[in-house]
Amino acid sequence: MTDLLTIGNTQLHNRLLTGTGKFYNHKLMKEALTQSGSQVVTVALRRVDLNATGEENILEDIPKDMILLPNTSGARTADEAVRIARLARAAGMGNWIKIEVISDQKYLLPDNYETVKATDILANEGFIVLPYMSPDLMAAKAMQNAGAAAIMPLGSPIGSNRGIRTKELIQILIEEMELPIIVDAGIGKPSEAAEAMEMGAAAVLVNTAIATAKDPVEMAIAFDLAVKAGRKAYSSGVGPTTTTAQASSPLTGFLG
Amino acid sequence: MSFYDEYVKVKHYPFDDFFSTITTQDVRRVLQKERLHTEDFLILLSPAAENCLEEMAQKAHQRTVQHFGRTIQLYAPLYLTDYCVNKCTYCSFSIDNDFPRRKLTLAEIEEESKALVKMGLRHIILLTGESRLHSSVDYLCETIDVMKKYFSSLSIEIQPLDTEEYQTLVAHGIDGLTVYQEVYNEEIYKQHHLKGPKRNYRYRLDAPERGAKAGMRSVNIGALLGMDEWRKEVFFTGLHAHYLQRNYLETDIALSFPRIRPNLGGFQPKVDVSDKNLVQAMLASRLFLPRAGMTLSTRESAELRRHLLPLGVTKMSAASSTVVGGYANKEHTHSQFEISDKRSVAEVKESLRELGYQPVVKDWEILTHSS
Fold this sequence. Notes:
The complex is a heterodimer. By secondary structure, chain A is an alpha/beta fold. Chain A has helices spanning about 25-35, 80-90, 110-125, 135-145, 165-175, 190-200, 210, 215-235; strands spanning about 5, 10, 15-20, 40-45, 65-70, 95-100, 130-135, 150-155, 180-185, 205. A five-stranded parallel β-sheet of chain A has the order 5-4-3-10-9. A three-stranded parallel β-sheet of chain A has the order 6-7-8. Chain A has a two-stranded antiparallel sheet with strand order 1-2. In chain A, helix 1 packs parallel to helix 8 (about 215-235). Chain B has a single domain, classed as Aldolase class I (TIM Barrel). Chain B is built from 15 helices and eleven strands. In chain B, strands 1-3-4-5-7-8-9-10 form an eight-stranded parallel β-barrel, surrounded by four helices. In chain B, strands 2-6 form a two-stranded antiparallel sheet. In chain B, helix 4 (about 40-45) runs antiparallel to helix 13 (about 275-290) and helix 5 crosses helix 13 (about 275-290). The interface of A and B includes residues 25, 56, 76, 84 and 211 of A.
């Protein structure tokens, strides 16, 4: 049985989403993206120079079979996110958009209020909208109502590599939301990607941990394997964990 | 609310007494911490911390790669005019330096823009002397209208303006503001800024805050190292950045560490800031402010820039001309200060790649309401 992830009308067989930031050269980025098996890659529109050719144009070094997920990095308001999204579509980057509205340059935490507004506008314009957000059930529901195609809660702040610190809140989203939950940001190690998948996340997005690894290509492969392992564990039913050992002398044994 | 209130609280702090109590142990303890407080920052600026520069460098490098990746943003300065109404002891543009002043016409700005685009640059900082007559907001708006079809990001380093004036420039497409306080020590500031509006210490000190209020995406501050004891000056700069980060979450705050360069007036710095001192200043600031941008200018030599790069730098200028009209026309020669790194853009990019860094020429898209 094939285990497919549906976003919008697209079916994906790979549950690792990747990014293009922070690599120290494009050649290495291309190789890491290819080896990761990932089918969706996010790229900041602000970094795309459509007039440039060769090495200066990041799009030329993204494997052609990947789905582009342009992001609105740099947007501080819904209005800026909307304009960046339109520029991306006009530039021929497809109709998927990851909304990033960040008005805090210190921790880079997303602004859920503005993100809901941008989701509403862009979904109405026919975009496949994937909002990046702080894990909050009510905000996620508002984004779903506004037409989001998936929800991307953060595991911990962007680039922090601190792992899934928002675990309880993400677990609630996984339980309560119908949309796919894609854990984005904060995943520093393959084991943490596996952890997110075991929790029932539909996918994870990993960029910094791959791009800044000593060997980004090998790290991309490690993440691919971890995501697959975590997904398989989830599908096959991870056993419940307990904090105490099972009692060896049952208290109700006398009942026979 | 102003950073001045915070400056006043610390300006008479007994720095030397504090430094004399700091040991290598204190520095190592700070290096174990996840988040640094003001006092930790001062410990990293102490003479005792000179024994721990390698440990500081390793940690600063790691923090920088984590937050910014192995990428360096490249930009170029464009000098629009060298008319200036201030009399400052250390600057070639000072009003009493007698040389033929220039102001680029819009046609010349177009020529300079084409030359810069040809060099492969997309982020430009516009510089002027400080003259409200020659570098007026209207002139800057006309300049922006010419330039925004060529570039992805335009910022300014000009005379300080009022909040409303900054707002006008932001609405036109300016996204970044650089204002160096030059020297935070208020008494020394008065000794070097002899005439003109620049004598107003407070108006300049509050300019970064006015820029942030006006919606500038990034604000770059700095002290001209060599004007006073560098440990104190770097401490005040870091506090200023911290103040701005705390109060203006939306704004990207960046720091520069310009050292005084030879110039037309033959000014001698009060304090000699060695390479080692510069390194310590950068490392302490990076560890105190892990998310702040850090700009390295062509004031430093190519060789030194190579070594400084991994210590926390996120942006650097390439192929800079500090001469008005210097890109399209090489015969203009009078510069604000002498640059040390005279390599071409291609050479700078190649050397970045050799060091394992990706040169980034475009990292924004001008979003004015007309776009």
